Amino acid sequence: MGIGYKEINLRAFKLLRPGGVLVTFTCSYYVERPRFESMLQEAASDASRQLIVRQRLSQALHHPEVMAIPETAYVKVLAVEIW
C-alpha cells in the first residue's frame, strides 16, 4: 500500500480533537481490509492518538460483492472516534 493512505489519515488524526470522528475509506481491491486497518492504527500511533471503531462498512447494495469474484469486494470504510 502506498504511503498516501497513511499520510492523509495521519494528517486528519492530527487535526481532529479528541472525540472527533473520521470516516475514511479505500475503493481499491488491492488494499485488503486487514492492511487498511493496520495502516490506520499506524497513522494513529504516529499522531499519538487512540482509535475507537464506531462502524465498518463496505460498498452499497447496488455494487454487490460476488463471492466467486474477489475483486468485487473493493470498498472498505471505517468510522473511527479519535482519542
CATH architecture: 3-Layer(aba) Sandwich
Main sheet: strands, sense, barrel: 3 strands, antiparallel
CATH superfamily: Vaccinia Virus protein VP39
- The total number of structural domains is 1
Number of helices: 2
The portion of residues assigned to helices is 25-40%
How would you summarize the topology of this molecule?
Elements: H1 3-15, E1 21-26, H2 33-46, E2 51-57, E3 76-82
Antiparallel strand pairs: 1-3, 2-3
Account of the 3D structure:
- This protein is of the alpha+beta class.
- The chain has a single domain (3-82), classed as Vaccinia Virus protein VP39 (Rossmann fold, 3-Layer(aba) Sandwich).
- Helices cover 33% and strands 24% of the residues.
- The mean pLDDT is 95.
Summarize the structure.
The chain is of the alpha+beta class and 83 residues long. The chain has one domain: Vaccinia Virus protein VP39 (Rossmann fold, 3-Layer(aba) Sandwich).
Structural features:
three-stranded antiparallel beta sheet, Rossmann fold, 83 residues, elongated, alpha+beta
